[in-house]
């Protein structure tokens, strides 16, 4: 191997590791408020519906970020797009610190969503580019595992760190944001010297918003979105209403406990991604559907009966299934899209998935407003059953479309 080629691949490996860590930090910031919601509720007097509105505003910000900038790294470059997303999240952290009232919380969550909406497709495409550069003869398995683990694992790291800081550090609704403001600024500095993987276009093209393009066909795209929505529904439950449920129905009021429970769900999701790596698409989806169905059933029973152990165990099993399905979704989209429009394809996919998350979070909020937490969880279980049924139907249709037909 020539020295130049070895240096090229070495830079790809180093960059891959840096982007994976940076992606984890960027996503972790999006769930920092999760264990803090009961503190906000106690301080400002709002309830579960307001919490879900705050969460929905974040999801709307994610959608807006993806529509406006999720595809720009295909033309402007991965590195500048990722740095811009990180700086957007730094700005959101400063808003959390300077404007702690409810309007400031809503605005900061929207700005957070803008950053995450830009960072998610950009970092995912960047990881795939760097993986291809570092290991040109290797399959996509390592990229799929690392990208989804950074995404889902970050969702769990945020509540864990924020819960511990809120429980044991001064200024519980300020310190977590100050810590992450420093981490995000450092992440932007580490991204700046990384190698760029997108060649400059021969001539500049005018700006356009994200186009809706379903690479691989509508059935495959529907299959991927059904996978993602099923997983994100579980993630949405545990990053919006679950801390309040834990505090009221299970009588566990410590932010550290709420953060640890949410972290357990997302740690199980990462474990599901790792364990499902050797499986084929059909087996992977079957495992995810079964785990989510069993886990969410246990969560509902644990909530209704007031059994914390069953609630936590069900959340872990549901998280394992959600991570498995999310990994399957990202793999389907990333493998079906050409390299020059990879970020655009991923942005379209995440756009559809997060639109579904907005509907889920608002529905949970309305249910929590109209009835008890236990009944709202039962309604959520029925909604998830519909999503999983849609996933099974899409998977069957996609496999039938791919099956060779006799001459």
From TrEMBL:
Record flagged with keyword Zinc-finger: no
The entry's keywords: Membrane, Transmembrane, Transmembrane helix
Keyword Oxidoreductase carried by entry: no
Cellular compartment(s): Cell membrane
Chief place where the protein resides: membrane
Membrane topology category: Multi-pass membrane protein
Entry superkingdom: Bacteria
Major facilitator superfamily (MFS) profile domain: residues covered: 14-400
PANTHER family noted in UniProt: MFS TRANSPORTER (PTHR23521:SF3), TRANSPORTER MFS SUPERFAMILY (PTHR23521)
Protein name (Swiss-Prot/TrEMBL): MFS transporter
